[in-house]
Amino acid sequence: MQGLASNRMRSALTMLGVIIGVSAVILLVSIGEGAKAAVSKQISGLGSALVVVIPGEMDLGGGMPRISSMGLMQSKLTYTDVKTIEEEADSINGVTPSLTSDIMIKFRNKTRITMLQGVTPGYLEVYSTGTEKGRFIREHEVDNAKKVCILGQTVADDLFGNFDPVGKRVTLGGQKYTVIGVMKERGQLAIVDVDDAVFVPATSAMVLTGTDTLGRILVGAKDPHNVEKTVAEVKQILSKRHDETDFSVATQAEMLSLFESVMGILTSMLGGVAGISLLIGGIGIMNIMLVSVTERTREIGIRKAVGAKGRDILIQFLIEAAALSIMGGIIGLILSVGVCILAGRFLPIQITVWSVVIALAVAVAIGVFFGAYPARRASRLYPIVALRYE
Question: How far is Cα 53 from Cα 75, in angstroms, rounded to an integer?
């Protein structure tokens, strides 16, 4: 330790790669786990009675959920499907389409980009929410594609401040829409502001986006303890109108399982990418240790001349390499925890014990592994050659 302290700059540069590597692993894994936990909490908060119809096939059986064509094909779900489910299904509490797109909304001299959501009156039952001011969309407004809208709290606050927006006219996609209500505040979904949205009749959204298909259909089951009955009923109704490859019906639990599996893979990939910097840090340790062996050749010769064996020299340099990697790992851990605490005010971050343990263990292992070659080289020096080295 005294030897390392006497060469502070060299020791610091040797540890730098390990510090960056450990910090990167812990930070990226913590961000991934935080996002996963936040979104999972929000999805679970929607209740166990939610059934989702999505375009394409989704195989949730036998281990990890697998998507075969979801999101890779043109959706064939239509507003007529929503009406059919609403009319024929007996086990549902509500049904609403989901048609989303970014759109520009303008009021007087204020303009912003927000999320357009095309929905029907069933949206309130499916999501168990309501309006803070005014009212929600009515059935006849959907049937006639009326130009009315409901603002999310964030949009209402940004465009109107303390003024009541109900009754005012805003511009959506170049067309005038009348504000008929403001939604209750729902908060964040991970890093996404759910209240940064504007709701219009699904048919009006189709006109604004120039499409006649839907991204999803959301169904609320009457009995949360018998959601499978609703799933079977919805499948039966849609099978009369579509091929089985055109759609998939999943419960909230299955969608949560799918999301967690995908996020788990993504988090592992982030950790793996960050781990490359640990490998680079190990190469840095080996290079500096080789320089150290060369500089300390005479010291090694003197030690061997007074009785030190090869394994004593080997252990000495291995301990130095391990000490450098351990100190670098601890500094990296402290640094990453500090950054996580600061960033936690703005992002959903969750530090996991396993990421800390793995990062530190890999750091030490890399230090010892890459320190082994310089240590072996030092231990095999002949005493007389080392003593004559200048």
Answer: 11
Judging by DSSP bridges, how do beta strands 92-107 and 131-134 pair with one another? unpaired
Q: Are strands 148-151 and 175-183 parallel, antiparallel or unpaired?
A: parallel
Q: How many CA atoms within 13 Å lie on the side-chain side of 14? A: 27
Q: Taking the domains of the chain in order of start, what are their residue ranges?
A: 2-39+263-388, 77-241
Give all strands (DSSP E) within 174-316, no chain letters.
175-183, 188-189, 192-193, 197-201, 216-221, 247-251
Tokens of 82: 């929503």
- What is the tens place of the pLDDT at every residue in 43-95? 555 555 778 888 876 655 544 444 444 444 577 888 888 888 888 888 888 88
Strands 110-119 and 169-172, by their bridges, are unpaired
Residue 151: count of CB within 10 angstroms of its CB = 32
Structure-token pair, residue 36? 């996963």
The model's pTM: 0.61
Total residue length of the chain: 390
Distance CA 303, CA 175 (A): 86
DSSP assignment letter at 112: E
What is the pLDDT averaged over residues 111-123?
90
The whole-number pLDDT of residue 47 equals 53
255 vs 44: CA distance, rounded Å: 10
> What's the Cα-to-Cα distance from 129 to each of 109, 119, 201, 219, rounded to whole Å?
31, 13, 17, 14
8 A C-beta contact, residue 314 and residue 350:
no
**Nearest C-alpha neighbor of 387 from the set 297, 266, 256:** 297
Give the integer Cα–Cα distance in Å for 204 and 236. Answer: 28
Instruction: Find the mean pLDDT for residues 262-276.
Output: 73
Cβ atoms within 10 Å, residue 276: 12
